[in-house]
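Same chain as my last thread, 578 residues:
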Amino acid sequence: MRIWKNVLTLTLLGVAAGSAAAQSQPANQTQPQSTPAAAGPVVTVDQAIDRITAREREQIATFRRFSPIIETYIQEMKSDKDMGAVPVKDHYFLGQADLSKGIVDHSMLGARKGKFDAVNPLVHMSGMFTSSYVPEGFLQMIYIDTTGFDRQHYQFDYVRREFLGEVRCVVFDVTPLPKSGRGRFKGRVWAEDQNFTIVRFNGVYTPIAGINSFNLHFDSWRTNVQPGLWLPSYVYSQESDLKEFLGGNIRFKSQTRLWGYDLKNVGHQSEFTELTVESPTINDEAVQQSQDRSPIEAEREWQHQAEINVLDRLQRTGLLAPPGEVDKVMETVINNLEVTNNLDIQPEVKCRVLLTGTIEMFTIGHTIVLSRGLLDALPDEASLASMLAQELADIIVTKPSTDQWGFNDTTNVSTTEALSHFSFKDTPAEVQLANAKALELLKNSPYKDKLSSAGLFMKQLDAESKSLPALINPRLGNRVQFGDQLASTAPNLDVNKLDQISALPIGARIKVDPWSDHVELVKAKPVPLLSAREKMPFEVTPFMPFLTRYQKPGEGPAADAQKADVAKKDSQQQSQQQ
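reply #2:
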């Protein structure tokens, strides 16, 4: 028997690409090899510099084994007397990097204009007097220097030791030596103090490449995804007042994320190694109990198998996160909607997370998919319930068919083909029917008196629709179109009202494991706002990940604490029984 569950206290709801060829090798071959410089303790600055530069050469060689998914989202900003700066235009790039061939980014969004020139992510398009962002320029930012990060090209100045999360680092300022060449890095590097791997670098490439190009400042982070393996994960770039060729100013903020480093396995390799062969003498009860299926049962099974085909392919291409804790949060909200509306939907409704930062949602059979970008921006549980109610209503009313995906060849596509191959958009008529049913579900739900926040979210989304079309327009599914019905339940938007949170900044809810693609809830505590400028709905903000060293599942302080908690509960139960 199902019961209604309250998830108001869950962290999610508090305010606040394809594989490289080498990925088919055993896991230990993806780990960097130790160099002779790694022998012995480091006791001088010179020794530290030698270890850092040698380790960085190893890192460059290691990166070439991978073909991760890379997503870059850019917001062009303008000055605002009240908010400081607000977004007025945006750009979105999604592709699969081919690091074995250098700085190569195969777009998943179709053909694009613009030419990549070494270290220039922003170039003028000749004869058009306009600027164009080039995604390979942001991919370049995962490297410090691919051709000469050493004493012959750089001066290293020791700064201090510093913790980045749990990882203690040595910090150096690096400056290109005179006549060292084009495209050298100028800035600061952080290297962890065990193997002296650079885990963060912050600065700019110098000198300026040419009159029609720009060098952009950036802050690049790597995370420890496997033993001894640190891979590029986040890049933040910003310019507040860059002078344009024609005399104008360029102001922008961008986030680049990388994931899908282990797409070759997608969790299935461990399943295969755990496979056991049963004795031929064991009786198969399933065979003994089998019976012919009716046409209705056969149709249901076909639809279900098609749904599995699509979900599996989207996960294999790096677009869908594996099942995890965020799914369970959404499914708890779905359970609340079903129980209070006396629904018993079979097969059971499941939820998954689309890994892209765009704001969209859709349904595949009986699986509801919400994008990472949408989950990031939702301000509270009632807003989440409104989105899920829309897709639950879609399942009830329009009953989306998956007939065409029942044949396995129809889903057998590569990572770069996936976005153009799949589409889960509803027709306007289907959206209207689902909207009406969703309102009915919400009015009978535990969220019926809390829908004003969802209305505010829709008002904020509508207000940003002209300036942020790349974020708001979907790639696979449906645009969030629930505004007219919910807007009447919400007060007017008031940017100066600190306790009115209409939408959160990008990255406020979800973090992605770059290796496995698993998603988790951000554990940050709510922070009181000091001014209206800190509200930043749908805005890009800097990355500040809490770095940790890799630990196998079931190990580390968190796992120890969980085991201790279980042991304590067992002890208490035994005491009560006695």
